[in-house]
Amino acid sequence: MQNKIIGVALSALMITGVAQSHSQFNGGYVGVGAGYQMTKQIVKADGNAAAAIPAAQRESKTVSPKGFDLSVHAGYGEMMDSIYVGGDARFAYNTGKKSTTMVDAAVPPTKAEIKTGWKTGLGALVGTEVMDDCLVYFRLGLDYSKTKIKVTNAGNFNTNKSTTVWYVTPGVGVMKSLDQDWKINASYEYGHAISAKKISNIIAFDKKPTTHAVKVGVSYFL
Fold it and tell me: Would you say 117 and 146 are in contact if contact means Cβ atoms under 8 Å apart?
């Protein structure tokens, strides 16, 4: 009887192992991606700039740099029964750039130019397989990014600074298997800043930045 129980247990383990090995999304992977991102940033004159601008003309301005997003990534995941659990790390560079005039023409114009730059982050993924060759998933990421901001005001000040922002980035996506090694994916992500450093004594964030991004990518499973 004991031998039969051990035999059944071993058979179950072997079946489980076969089922896991046949999942096309098990294991580690590396890849590249591209996409388009819009960053919404609301800035206001602060410190020296505020002193140079009459109070009646101080106002917040929305600046929305839009640009292409290029990235590399690596991750690992496993199917556990019908649930996929995994994680990834990525590094991206965004080409977004946008300028705005902070005040109207009645005073020396204060201009701000914002450029989005590199971003790095970690993410956790939960999903499930559909149609045998597709994985639909939810991703929750924590991203750290750098933004460059140039501010000028005729005769008063000129500054070119970088600031860093932490984002919580939830997203949804789908990954399709082309074969045992190659997979393609598409996703949408929304980022909401949880920590944004003061830019300088000239310009400050009036509200925490947000992002919207659509992405596609290709991964090679190791």
Answer: yes
User: pLDDT tens digits for 87-141?
Assistant: 999 999 999 988 877 665 445 667 778 888 999 999 999 999 998 899 999 999 9
Going by C-alpha positions, the residue among 55, 46, 93 that lies closest to residue 72 is 93
CATH number at residue 57: 2.40.160.20
Burial state string for 87-101 with b = 16 or more CB within 10 A and e = fewer than 16: ebebebebebebeee
Model pTM?
Answer: 0.79
Domain interval for residue 146: 2-221
- Per-position DSSP letters for 136-154, written without gaps between them: EEEEEEEEEEEEEEEEEET
CA distances from 163 to 87, 142, 166 (A): 27, 17, 10
Give the number of other Cβ atoms within 10 Å of residue 154's Cβ.
12
Give the SS3 label for residue 133. Answer: coil
Model confidence at 195, pLDDT cuts 50, 70, 90, reads confident
Query: pLDDT digit string (tens) for 22-31?
Result: 578 999 999 9
Structurally, how many domains does the chain consist of? 1
Q: Which helix (H) or strand (E) holds 42?
A: strand 27-45
- The owner of tokens 């598409």 is 186
